[in-house]
Amino acid sequence: MNHFGIEVSLKHAPKLDPAYLPLYRFNKAFLQGAKAPLGLAVERSNGEMAVCETFIHGTPEMREADCYYVNRVVKTILWMKGGFRIYVRGSEDIRAYLAEAYSASGCQAFDWDYMANVFEHPFEVVSCEVLPQAKDSPQAIGRHLDGCRIGFDAGGSDRKVSAVVNGESVFSEEVVWFPKTNSDPDYHYDGIVAALKSAAEHMPRVDAVGVSSAGVYINNRTMNASLFLQVPKDLFDAKVKDIYIRAITDTFGSVPYAVANDGDVTALAGAMSLEEDNVLGIAMGTSEAVGFVDPQGRITGWLNELAFMPVDAAPTAMRDEWSGDIGCGVKYFSQDAVIKLAPAAGIELDEALSPAEKLKAVQKLMAEDDPRAADIYSSIGVYLAHALALYFDLYHYKHVLLLGRVMSGKGGDLILSTCKEVMADEYPDIAARISPTLPDEKFRRVGQSAAAASLPEIVK
Description:
With 460 residues, this protein is an alpha/beta fold. It has 15 helices and 17 strands. A five-stranded mixed β-sheet has the order 9-8-7-10-13. It has a four-stranded mixed β-sheet with strand order 4-3-5-6, covered by helices on one side. A four-stranded mixed β-sheet has the order 15-14-16-17. Strand 3 (36-43) and strand 4 (49-56) form a beta hairpin. Helix 9 (335-345) crosses helix 11 (371-395) and helix 11 (371-395) crosses helix 12 (409-426). It starts with a strand and ends in a 7-residue tail after the last helix.
């Protein structure tokens, strides 16, 4: 395959998507001929900094390839770690390109606006002579089992709550709600408080509250979340940013609390069930939700929004309706991937069905051993093998926990077996160092809401 003058070799391509060009493979091929040093750094909140020392070609004939490569590197860092300021050392031309791309009228306008809102700071691209030092602030959060705790897990279709006493769940409840279609933040607040009170009724007291919720959370505040998609910005700022803090303190006073991204809590639950650290959790459902527990058992505080991180360098890659970009994880590791591949497999899905219903239709065919459905799941397995190589390059994880509706049943088993086969052949060094796995009964017993309950520390 040739892309921007870069020749990329590939052993395994998905049967139903032969044009797929793994970004990891493109990056490696690009760097083979790149000799001009380039430094990039992305600044987050509290002075945290993600730093990347890399290379470009730096010649007029390779400028298009250079710009594409740097664009994808920056986007990768932004959706892995987040940030509002890009520092560039070594090329004023690249700095000017990034400043144009990441602007209100640029090709990455969505990322520019999103990051500015999340970090409450105008997005900037600046040059520097000396690259800033890398800095992270991981937190040793979770795995606290003492006392009477509440764990709340806010999902897009249901909310779960657990009452946990000294590590044992004494009550759990799952209630259907409709947060994504409701524009009144009081609806969300009332639902959260109702769940907290329901759990509290089953314990003698409440010592701490932990929350797992989809979205971006900084200092326990909601910076962006699809759960509040319909809430107007003025009401979001006034009532949603501190919604969990208000719900907990209004209900229980000054008890310890912690709010974390649901992907990180999933990874934490996986680490607790595996009794291991250095765990990447990937949930393939409505979207791709990802979390990471580092080798020291800490949550990093990074965005880990890999649904919007690029994985496919093919110019024909499917466009994500929300971000407007192409080749991003959501179209490869969610129910969208199954739906996307269905026509190529010869499966016609009723357009009147919801995305979840379309997934169920393909799952039914897979349960009946339909070879067309098998082609869909094996193609996703090839996607996953190449993406896990990219993710390994970024996280250096040891364990991968694969969850979500897409990974359930025979389809999930085929995704995992195909992924392992492709990795062993295409990336043997990485395959020997990682352990992709599906959740077991122990993980299910830990559960998302129970893991959330372990988030805050009770200081004695």
